[in-house]
Specification:
With 260 residues, this protein is mainly α. The longest helix has 25 residues. Helices cover 63% and strands 4% of the residues. It has twelve helices and three strands. A three-stranded antiparallel beta sheet has the order 1-3-2. The relative contact order is 0.12.
Length: 260
């Protein structure tokens, strides 16, 4: 993969640094995860009842998962290509284990599939799948936004203005991965006002899937398309504050149609 994910010269630098820090810890600390654990004695100490708890550090895995998701959106992980955990681990400067764990999560999300004895293949998607995702998102989110438009006070909507402005700045950068993250953050904040955690989780999964690139198509959209998409967020907030339901309905429908 080439450099440039999330607008950084080395998108996996944080994951590599965390792995080096982990490897540099004294053996006693690595085993327990507690500072100063080396040299401590347990003579006469009563065992803690119950099953042994499995303690694991997930920071490296989480950073790699984020980096892989960004690489999917940016097109650095190409549809149809197979990537092995050892090769990616070498790229990240970590072992294959956290990479494999991150890829297993992406398998659950439908981004990749397991290829026995080879690694993970990035799923190939066509325009029809993208259109279907847009349709499902509209069926799920449009009624919720219309209900929220009737009930949420204007000052609550105004609190989301910084998130909408963040999407405009992210779009101006021209980086699809940066914009994708800010785009999800805005939609997540809007739907969170419904107070339904299951709704937010389902909508975010659909949203993330809709951001993956098409096989044989452009990486995502060009900078101008991203800027236009982001501008719809601020227009939507204005309509929500004004409680203009017709404009809200049209803007949300157009927004999802544009995503396809």
């Amino acid at each position: 993969m080439k450099q440039g994910v999330q607008g950084s010269a080395d998108p996996f630098g944080e994951a590599r640094a965390a792995a080096r820090e982990r490897a540099a810890e004294p053996a006693g600390r690595r085993d327990t995860g507690l500072p100063g654990a080396r040299g401590e004695h347990t003579h006469g100490e009563r065992p803690i009842p119950g099953p042994r708890a499995a303690v694991r550090r997930s920071s490296v895995r989480g950073q790699i998962l984020d980096a892989l998701r960004s690489a999917l959106v940016s097109g650095e992980l190409r549809p149809g290509e197979v990537y092995s955990a050892p090769a990616l681990g070498e790229r990240f400067g970590v072992s294959a284990t956290p990479v494999r764990e991150a890829m297993q999560q992406l398998t659950l999300e439908g981004a990749v599939e397991v290829v026995p004895n080879r690694g993970f293949r990035v799923m190939e998607r066509g325009a029809r799948e993208l259109a279907e995702l847009a349709e499902v998102r509209a069926l799920l989110e449009v009624p919720v936004m219309l209900r929220l438009a009737r009930t949420v006070p204007a000052e609550r909507w105004a609190e989301l203005r910084p998130l909408a402005e963040d999407t405009v700045r992210a779009a101006s950068s021209g980086c699809p991965a940066t914009y994708a993250e800010s785009d999800r953050a805005f939609h997540r904040a809007v739907l969170s006002l419904a107070g339904n955690a299951q709704l937010v989780r389902m909508a975010e999964d659909l949203h993330r899937r809709s951001q993956w690139p098409l096989v044989g198509g452009p990486v995502r959209h060009g900078r101008a398309d991203l800027v236009a998409d982001a501008a719809e967020h601020t227009a939507l907030l204005d309509a929500l504050i004004a409680r203009d339901l017709d404009v809200v309905r049209d803007l949300v429908a157009d927004h999802f149609a544009g995503a396809a």
